[in-house]
Specification:
Blueprint (H helix, E strand, L loop, with lengths): L1 H7 L3 H18 L1 H14 L15 H6 L7 H9 L1
Helix pairs in contact: 3-5
Length: 82
């Protein structure tokens, strides 16, 4: 272990940076299930309406691309892809 630390000592800032970036990567990977849940809740369960009360209707174009007030399916799929 002492030999390993001897070789890693000149690169300690790179090691710290890599650990921080790996942590950030894991945090952002936790967002994927939340985005998928948002797609399923808002788009799949209510494909013809923007809201759960079924008061604001939408057509297929608005379902896929969205409009000024709501995001469509392609927006959320783009978030998942990155």
């Amino acid at each position: 272990m002492k030999t390993l630390l001897h070789y890693l000592k000149p690169h300690k800032w790179l090691l710290i940076a890599s650990l921080v970036l790996a942590t950030i990567n894991q945090v952002f990977s936790l967002f994927a299930p939340a985005i998928t849940g948002n797609i399923l809740d808002n788009l799949v369960t209510h494909p013809n309406f923007f809201d759960k009360e079924k008061l604001i209707p939408r057509d297929l174009n608005q379902f896929l691309y969205g409009n000024d007030q709501y995001h469509g399916a392609f927006y959320f799929l783009g978030l998942l892809i990155g």
